[in-house]
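Can't paste images in this forum, so I'm doing it all in text. The chain is below; anyone willing to post the predicted structure tokens underneath?
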Amino acid sequence: MRARGSCLLLLVLALSGAAGAADFLGPESCKGCHPAAYEAWMQSKHARAGDSLSDAQKTDARCLSCHAPDQGSQGVSHVTCETCHGGGQYYSPAYVMKDAELARLVGLVDPSEKSCRGCHDASSPSLKPFDFVESLKAIDHWSAERTGKKGTRAEAPPPEPAKKK
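Text version of the structure:
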């Protein structure tokens, strides 16, 4: 067990600087291992976020910052898996994804209410009031209920929503 911890520590140290700059692999790279999550995403507004913009809005950085936040750096014109979960270059290999702690150490992000509110906030010109808990249900791509499999999860569950004080 000690050797595994040492290897893990060396891997984290080696990749710690690189993980922050991880390249995106694209949503198709997630589909093979996470077909239910991919289908949930394909049915979501996130998968078509860039399509909802007018031609003028497609050149407006204020609009692109939410509808296609990774277009400039990654050439992706929608909100994809990696927009919310971080670039998958280092966490996408199956042996990494099987170890939730390792996946998070090398770049997998568990989106939070704060990260969602980066776009879903009062300054959005056309956004209705945002209820994080209800919105989370609408994009559910990890629960047994979504996948139709009892007792299993399609993905690792997200962190619990922060309780309001």
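The chain has one domain: 23-145. The first helix runs from residue 2 to 19.
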